[in-house]
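Question (not urgent): is this output format expected?
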Amino acid sequence: MERHHKILHRRPAGPAEDLFARALRRWPWSQFSPTAEPPRSALTLRLVLATFGMAVCGVFAGVAVIIGRPFLAIAMAVLTAVATFDIAVILRHRAARGPGGRADTR
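Got this back:
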């Protein structure tokens, strides 16, 4: 019970805790990135992968129809629809971020 009380009523972080938290967030990127900056977004990679998945599943759905495999064709068509929906969600998120690439945090 005592521990639960401390978690709920935590004091604001002081300057030392803030410095530690910033260093901890930055640490892995300073080891592996030449610029020591964390990645800003994975939306572009997600868009490329969703587009690739949509194209591949669309082609496989067409091939499955040609060779007479209706279950496989339906499964590939469903995956094509999921990838298309994912592309729409990604584009909506990118549009919301604006031309600068960052969300409006005001």
